[in-house]
Amino acid sequence: MIPLLSAAASCYDTAEKETSVMKFPVSDPGEFKALDAPVIDRAVTSDGNGSLYVDAGSPVSVALYTVEGAGFEHARAAYKAMLRTEGLTAEGDSRGIAYLEMKVRYPGGEELVSRGPAVPPSGTTGWIPVEAVIYSDKGVTPESVSLALVVDGKGKVWIDDVVLLTQPLRLDYLFWGHAVVWIVLIIYIYYLLGKQRRVRSELAALGKGS
Question: Could you tell me the pTM of the whole model?
Answer without folding.
Answer: 0.74
